[in-house]
Every structure is written in structure tokens, then in C-alpha cells.
Write a structure and sequence with these properties.
Blueprint lengths: L13 E4 L8 H10 L1 E3 L8 H10 L7 E4 L13 H4 L8 E4 L9 H6 L3 E3 L6 H17 L1 H9 L3 H10 L11 E5 L3 H14 L2 E5 L6 H7 L2 E2 L3 H5 L4 E4 L13 H4 L6 E5 L8 H10 L2 E6 L10 H4 L4 E3 L8 H19 L21 H9 L3
Parallel strand pairs: 1-2, 1-3, 3-4, 4-5, 6-7, 6-9, 7-8, 9-10, 10-11, 11-12
Length: 372
């Protein structure tokens, strides 16, 4: 194992920097280095056993912030659960990470320890919104079936798709898009689907959005999930997963959708009971599904992968250069602002942080199950 660098000796606030070097925003990083000491452990020290031991030993001293600017690295230690969080120095004020989702970190436990968690909300909105639109087109027009038949180089498969597919395809226009979670990403998808396809937007969330936001996409709010599902032609998940990983889309939820409805998931794979989804597709209760995320990544369901009415992508929703730029910028600027006594840009669990360090159960439920 490579030794971790010794913590700097100055009295300036310290940042524990996890993951790869800054790639897109070097000027912001230079600004951070001019104000704070940055500790940047090598990759072997981020693997969970080593990482926990370094925290126990105080290898990196008393740092006040944790920064993970890249989604692809810096998470080698796995889930940020109570075991890990309790080992952090008492002076940690903020943990800022790339990524819009935060199912890998117990934000309630962080709040109990007085640590604000900041995500990369907004940085991936455009890219994930575009990916959702791709999947919406695909589930209505059977794009996977057509693409597979063309790539087979088999004239019989080509002719079958050419002649048979149209009778099973529909235009998205004027169909209802039921969105669970009208946060940044959910609203971006609503804007795109409404503008491009003239889809009718329905949504369910824990908090109703302002009237001007609803009117921008002619959205109809449903406080009751069941009422929305019964009116939904295509269901879109755009809501965070819970730290517990309990699925949202179950057999009972699927049974509430009209027969022949479509389903798209650009949120988290853990939100879906994939066996229940496969059963609904096999029975014809569900016409098609589009999945950018999967329950057991990097492995996908073999059962679903065999279906030509299922479109799959490799969790590439946020996969664009612009997203990487935004993730870096937000992670660094959130840390900078908090350490300088200013309000964070994308704090997630601030409402859970009480003066006495405790939080209410009802607040935790809302924080972990709300819109994206």
C-alpha cells in the first residue's frame, strides 16, 4: 500500500480531496489551494479497509471538509454509513461530491454529526434530461427492436422489424408522461417532452411546485400517487433512491398503471424490482421499458436484456463533458463557501441539522424520498 501523505503543518482549514486530479477547472482548484491546505490521498488508501484505518489512526489530521469532484473515482471506500461517518474528525463541516444522487451516503447520519452534504445537483440536469428523452422515444417507437434487427445483418429480422414493428409503435405526442419527482431533472424532462412531443405532464412529489413552474409545462399535480399512475401512459422515475435501497417500482405499483403503459428510469436502479418489471413486460401489462440505471450495476438483468422491448444504456445519463465540468465546479465551490462561512450552493441535508445535533424522523423521510 502506498503511504498517505502527512497532513500539512499549517493552521489553515484542511480539505480531504478524494479521487482523481482536477481535470476541467484548474483555476478554481488554485483558488482553493491559496486558501486551504488540501490533502490528496493516493487511490490505494481509499479502499475501505485502508480508508477506515487511516481515519482511526488520524493519518490526515483534523480536516474540516471532504471533496469528491469526480463521480468515477473517490468512492472506492463504498457506502458512507454510520461505521465510516463516526470515524470522521469532529471538526468536519461539509462533504461535497459529484453526482446528483446520494443513495451511497447516509445524509441523516451526516446531519447528526453536524456535517452538511452537498451534491452535484444541476450539473447533470441537461444530460440526464436528454437521456430520458432518448428512452421515451425508444419505448414508444420500439427503437431497440429496430436497432437489433438492423445490426443482426439478417434480412429476415430486418423485414420482420420493418413490417411488424409499426403496428406496435406509437408517437409520444399527446400521451401522458407521469413523473415521480419533479426536481431539477424531472422538470427538465417535462420541459423537453412537452416542447418536443406535446406530451401531457402529470407529476407526483412530496411538495407541489409553484404555479408558474407548473404552467410552464402545463403540468398537473397529483398528491396521491395512485391517482396519477392510473392516468399515466409513460411513467418516468426522477427521484432519489433511499439509503436503505428499498425499491419503489414493485408489482403492486406496476398493477396500477394502465395495460400497455411504458416505463423509463433515469434515477437509480435500486428503485426498481427488476423481476416484477420483467413479469409485467412478459405478460404484456407493460409495453416497453427504458433503463439507464440498473439494480446491480455493473451487472444488468439477463432476463430484461433478452427483451427487444427493453432499451438499456450503461448509466450514461449524466455522461457528458459539461457534466464533468459542473461536478468539479460545484464540489469545489460548495467547500469553499462553507469553509468561508457562506451558504452552500447545493446543500442536501441542511434542514436535518438541528442545534443539538439531532433530527426528526419525519424530516429524514422527506429528505431521502423527495424529488431529485
Amino acid at each position: 500500500m502506498s503511504p498517505s501523505p502527512s497532513p500539512p503543518s499549517s493552521s489553515r482549514p484542511r480539505i480531504l480531496f478524494l479521487g482523481d486530479d482536477i481535470q476541467y477547472c484548474p483555476e478554481i482548484y488554485k483558488r482553493l489551494q491559496s486558501q486551504f491546505d488540501v490533502i490528496h490521498p493516493p487511490p490505494p488508501d481509499l479502499r475501505r479497509p485502508a480508508f477506515l484505518q487511516h481515519l482511526r489512526d488520524g493519518t490526515w489530521g483534523e480536516f474540516q471538509a471532504i471533496m469528491r469532484p469526480s463521480w468515477h473515482t473517490g468512492g472506492e471506500m463504498g457506502r458512507w454509513d454510520q461505521e465510516l461517518i463516526e470515524l470522521l474528525p469532529q471538526g468536519v463541516k461539509v462533504s461535497a461530491s459529484a453526482g446528483a444522487g446520494y443513495d451511497w451516503v447516509d445524509v441523516s447520519c451526516l446531519a447528526e454529526h453536524g456535517i452538511l452534504y452537498c451534491n452535484g445537483a444541476g450539473a447533470s440536469t441537461e444530460a440526464v434530461g436528454d437521456m430520458a428523452l432518448y428512452h421515451i422515444i425508444s419505448v414508444f417507437r420500439n427503437m431497440t427492436w429496430s436497432a437489433l434487427a438492423a445490426r443482426s445483418m439478417d434480412p429476415t429480422q430486418f423485414q420482420d422489424a420493418h413490417h411488424t414493428l409499426p403496428s406496435q409503435a406509437s408517437n409520444p405526442r399527446s400521451h401522458t408522461l407521469g413523473i415521480v419527482g419533479l426536481g431539477n431533472i424531472g422538470f427538465a424532462v417535462a420541459q423537453k417532452a412537452h416542447a418536443a412531443f406535446g406530451m401531457k405532464i402529470l407529476y407526483h412529489d412530496i411538495v407541489r411546485k409553484p404555479a408558474e413552474q407548473e404552467s410552464a409545462v402545463r403540468a398537473t399535480f397529483y398528491p396521491g400517487l395512485e391517482d396519477m399512475l392510473r392516468r399515466t401512459d409513460c411513467l418516468l422515475l426522477a427521484t432519489p433512491s433511499t439509503f436503505s435501497g428499498r425499491p419503489f417500482l414493485t408489482k403492486d405499483i406496476l398493477a396500477l398503471l394502465p395495460r400497455g403503459a411504458r416505463f423509463v428510469n433515469v434515477a437509480r436502479g435500486s428503485l426498481v424490482d427488476e423481476d416484477a418489471l420483467a413479469e409485467a413486460l412478459e405478460s404484456g401489462d407493460l409495453a416497453a421499458a427504458g433503463l439507464d440505471v440498473h439494480a446491480h450495476e455493473p451487472n444488468v438483468s439477463a432476463r430484461l436484456a433478452r427483451m427487444r422491448n427493453v432499451t438499456m444504456t450503461c448509466h450514461n445519463g449524466g455522461g457528458a463533458v459539461e457534466t464533468g465540468v459542473g461536478f468539479e465546479q460545484l464540489a469545489m465551490e460548495n467547500v469553499e463557501r462553507v469553509l468561508n462561512g457562506r451558504e452552500a450552493l447545493t446543500g442536501v441535508n441542511g434542514h436535518l441539522m438541528m442545534p443539538n445535533g439531532h433530527e426528526g424522523h419525519e424530516q429524514v423521510h422527506h429528505a431521502t424520498n423527495g424529488g431529485s
